[in-house]
Amino acid sequence: MTTLAAISLFGALLGADPEGQLSVKPDDARKLVKRSLAFLETGAVAWVAEKKCVTCHHVPTMLWTHHEARKLGFAVNEKAVRDLETEAISQYLGHPEFTPTGQDKGFLEKPLGPGSVYLVLGLQANPAPSEEAVQALEKLRSNFVTHQNENGSWTTKVNQAPLIDSHDVVTMQILLAMGDGGPAGKHRDAWDRGWKWLQETPVRDETQPIAYRLLIASRCRNQEGVQKGVEQLRSKQQADGGWSQKPQLATDAMATGQALFALGAAGVGADDTSVRQAWSFLASTQQENGSWVVHTQNPNSHDPVISYFGTGWGTLGLIRTLPTPSVAP
């Protein structure tokens, strides 16, 4: 389905405002989530079955979105979630350096695989983790501490933007992945050192690092940082309601989802105009199979993996900005 056709379809279904923009309501946004969850489930199950690899994109993304969706009352395939989680934990903890996948290999620096970072972000989204997941989280978080650089940052192989695009984002991801073991927990020293390095590192003018900084400010209840991050993201929203990964790139679901997810964490909700405009962008660009097309920044890579990853972020952004329903959707 082309973008123009999608706009026409959703305009007819949802109704347009006086300026011709789509008016997507919470119930409509939930329909987008249901469709994308089905796509993410099918894709992750098929990937593992065919490639025997849990990856740093398909499985962690599926786990993260499904755990977040369940908290908001969405029905998920519990068996698929459980099976993929068990397989991912087995593959990562079964490797001596927690780097079992191809993307985790080939380091010039410390062997900290990006897959373990995304896996922790996915696992910790479950408010009622299994004992197996709890043990995995502790082992992987302790491994992060072991591989922290002397200056407080974390580094990994950066060659698959936007999946892995810079050391500042990797550092922020790990700070978020520390969970309750972060600013007030058992890994407080490592967290503080990472936070200090981040404070001394220039802010890149891109949606992903700005969104992650806002997520950390929200986690720390840093009101000044929250206000600044919200203002920065609002200023980058484009006329079509979406966000772009970089100023020179077109808007897409990944950047839009990250912006929404961070805004939602900061308390910006469904009644906000920016949120509704972003929902409209996602409604007008979702494919018939429930996915969104996102283009890779790596000329030697291809779009399907990044589109799956971007679909995950679009889903997370919708979920985080949806109101809690009075009944399960």
Can I get a quick summary?
This protein is mainly alpha-helical and 329 residues long.
Keywords:
Glycosyltransferase; 57% helix; globular; mainly alpha; 329 residues; two-stranded antiparallel ribbon; 1% strand
Verbal overview:
The protein has 329 residues and is mostly helical. It has one domain (3-12, 20-321): Glycosyltransferase. It has helices at 3-14, 26-51, 58-71, 78-93, 114-123, 131-146, 167-177, 188-199, 207-219, 223-236, 253-265, 273-285, 303-321, and strands at residues 243-244, 251-252. A two-stranded antiparallel ribbon has the order 1-2. The longest helix is centred in the N-terminal third of the chain and has 26 residues, at 26-51. The chain starts with a helix and ends in an 8-residue tail after the last helix.
Total number of helices: 13
Helix content: 55-70%
Strand order, largest beta sheet = 1-2
| Biggest sheet architecture | 2 strands, antiparallel
Mean of residue pLDDT? 87
Overall number of strands: 2
Q: Could you outline the blueprint of secondary structure elements for this entry?
A:
Elements: H1 3-14, H2 26-51, H3 58-71, H4 78-93, H5 114-123, H6 131-146, H7 167-177, H8 188-199, H9 207-219, H10 223-236, E1 243-244, E2 251-252, H11 253-265, H12 273-285, H13 303-321
Helix pairs in contact: 2-3, 2-13, 3-4, 3-5, 3-13, 4-6, 5-6, 5-7, 7-8, 7-9, 9-10, 9-11, 11-12, 11-13
